[in-house]
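User: Look at the shape:
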Amino acid sequence: MTQIKKIKIYGLAIALSLLSLICFAQTNKTPEIWSGSYPEMIERGEIRVAVPYDRTIYVSDKGVQRGLAVEVSKGLAKWINAKYVGQLKGKPISIKLVPIIAPDLLNSLTSGRADFAIGDIGLYEPIPNSQNFITNHAHRVQQEVLVTGPSSAQLQKIDDLSGQTVYGSRNTNFQKTLSVLNKELRRDGKLPVNLASPLGDLDDEDLLEMLNSGLISYVIVGDWKFKLWQSIYKNLTMHEDLAVQDSGWVGWVVRATNSDLNDDLKGFYESDDFVKSLTAFRQADYKQHLKGLKDPIDKNLWTRFESMRPLFNRFGAQYKLNPLVIASLGFQETLLNQSAVSSVGAIGVMQLMPATGMSLGVGDIHLLEPNIHAGADYMNQLINKYFQDAKFEGINRSLFAVASYNIGPNNVAKARDQAKQLGFDPNRWFGNVEFIATEHMGYEPMIYVRNVYKYYISYSLRLKEIQSIQP
């Protein structure tokens, strides 16, 4: 884990106190370029905020804006319009949400695309041209905490973590604390704590969902994120006594010439309207987008996987696909049930339509081996036909095949093209193309691919293909 954090888009709970979403900047439109004073913004009736793409903070779900930014923005709209009601003459101030990829967050201010930006600013990473900005170290400093779930052992004290493995996302800062703890455990003749961070490409929300479903036992996340999701993930417990201060800080950035805007943002952050906005998010409609995970390493389901594993390995190698991803796709579709037949007639583990199976010419897909063979063959053909220009690295070839399996290769290809235009990496699914696919197709592809990936991680952990470290 890097000790110096760069500008990141994850962990923005406090900074989001600064948003108001009245209108949405469509991602396929050229942004307005304008730089002005705060009084001029009020006169124009619009303030623009650069907000990063993030599953908790901002997602466009088929054109419907979702995330913490939506609810917090309503609070800011109420607060700022109440303050200036005497001079607005009935014309309310709207604050335009401008989605920005992480590397362009501060550049959006200097280029005139936004009037302020939110971000998780690394404590030790200097801001380029810092004299051009006013940066705000939020007062409610977040901490990273240990969270346990239904498969966790009972913890009375931190020493009870001896011999256990804890999981964190890419930006976790718990390694330093575990180093101290492990030194003490070794001194006392006890097993050290293992750390797996990052756990593949899983983010904090993924880890909490897996923890809640019992797929993993210990997770480290920012306490604010746990509190945001605890009303949905009801099987989790936060241990504030097993916490560590985050090495970064969250806040907002404005141009140096806009100190009066900065003062108002501070005012909203310190108001009850901000607290009410966080509460509103917790009560929002995110539950409908979450689908409970099944346990792929349940005794009976694991036995089923083991019996099919040679087929996944053979056809994965033949078609240059990760065999565990093929297995995870089958698990997502049918729990690896070859007897499954969908309401529209899709057959077997891989849920293929009879016509598709026949066109592949690998045998009767009512039988297990031809069914898995056909599924892998079909995934491979989707990639070879529709993504000939792609330069997929690592597991991304398999992930794009899964996405195409779910929503069709044409839709994925269109999402790749637009992602490239917006500055995303068109060859990476997570944190890149998935956001554009969600904007046009809804939450389904995001949840579907992430569920498959979580099953892949679960298989990999059980097979010890993911190594942890002992800090």
